[in-house]
Write a structure and sequence with these properties.
305 residues; alpha/beta; TIM Barrel; 9-stranded mixed sheet; 11 strands; globular
């Protein structure tokens, strides 16, 4: 993919509709593609396994990503921090307390010490009555390990850390694995995203938190002059309105929604033609997508089965 501005990417996406997409035969018919190189994320409806599908396996681990990949999800979603010795690791929180038996900031651990912890220690399928993955060797993976393990997977990667910066390290790893064309990079942090966009204008990026806030305040009077800052917005379902979705679509911005685990809400969003849903339960989402493949665009979302 040759470098281009976000505006050029957005403009291209604006010309594409679901009707112009076709099945890519890659996995399930839930993943139509746009007939434009490197625009996998900008057309169709993507089943995006949030943290690898954290309702089904220990979040942000190779075990979760392997499970999601076996299920045939379209996108593996993950989060990044760094260790004390500068290794970029896949973990959501900035501490290890919630998911492991350890305690303390991720940045206080060397990689060896971090990977000595059990990343499945607190994962339970029954509300804490049992911990089926505990003691099975599940560790916090590095981004390098994930990219190596899934050389053909599409990834949504959120950079959670601002200081010390990991932007250069992320770009080096993407290049080492020839992965730029199969990722979308998210960060709510303006300095992180500004640095990333300046250094890698070819990368597909998402709105920051402040950019989403500005988008949420737009009125009809602002619509004509609005220039999207990125070709993709990943928005929380509890603050997203139908009007915000429609506005993004008018400007060719792909809308991906998090975190959606309720089937009826999945169906509503699918019928609004969002481009992706981040879910902890990709099995339920795959079922909802399959059921809605025969539903015409513009159908009444309230009539969801």
């Amino acid at each position: 993919m040759t470098p281009r501005s976000n505006r050029a990417i957005v403009g291209c996406a604006a010309t594409l509709t679901l009707a112009a997409c076709a099945s890519d035969g890659d996995r399930a018919p839930s993943a139509p593609f746009c007939d434009v190189p490197a625009h996998y994320f900008l057309c169709g409806m993507r089943n995006m396994a949030h943290r690898g599908g954290s309702k089904l396996a220990p979040e942000d681990t190779l075990a979760a990503f392997e499970n999601a990949n076996a299920l045939g999800v379209d996108v593996l979603e993950m989060d990044l921090h760094s260790t004390a010795d500068g290794e970029i690791v896949v973990v959501h929180d900035d501490t290890v307390d919630r998911t492991t038996e350890g305690s303390g900031p991720v940045t206080s651990f060397t990689l060896d010490d971090l990977q000595a912890l059990d990343a499945a220690y607190r994962f339970s399928l029954d509300g804490g009555a049992s911990f089926p993955w505990r003691g099975t060797g599940v560790v916090v993976p590095t981004l390098d390990q994930v990219l190596a393990a899934f050389p053909n997977a599409h990834l949504s990667i959120e950079i959670k850390q601002q200081e010390p910066s990991i932007v250069d390290g992320v770009l080096e790893l993407l290049d080492a694995h020839d992965a730029r064309e199969r990722v979308v990079i998210a960060s709510f942090l303006d300095p992180v995203m500004a640095d990333l966009r300046a250094k890698a204008p070819d990368l597909l990026t998402t709105y920051t938190l402040s950019e989403m806030f500005q988008w949420s305040l737009l009125t009809e009077a602002d619509d004509a002059a609005y220039v999207p800052p990125a070709p993709v917005v990943q928005a929380p379902v509890d603050t997203l309105t139908d009007e915000m979705i429609a506005l993004a679509q008018r400007h060719g911005v792909a809308v991906q929604v998090w975190t959606v685990n309720d089937r009826a809400e999945m169906v509503r969003l699918i019928r609004l033609n969002v481009n992706g849903i981040l879910t902890d339960d990709p099995v339920t989402l795959a079922d909802a997508i399959a059921d809605q493949l025969v539903v015409p665009q513009g159908s009444d979302p309230s009539a969801a089965p």
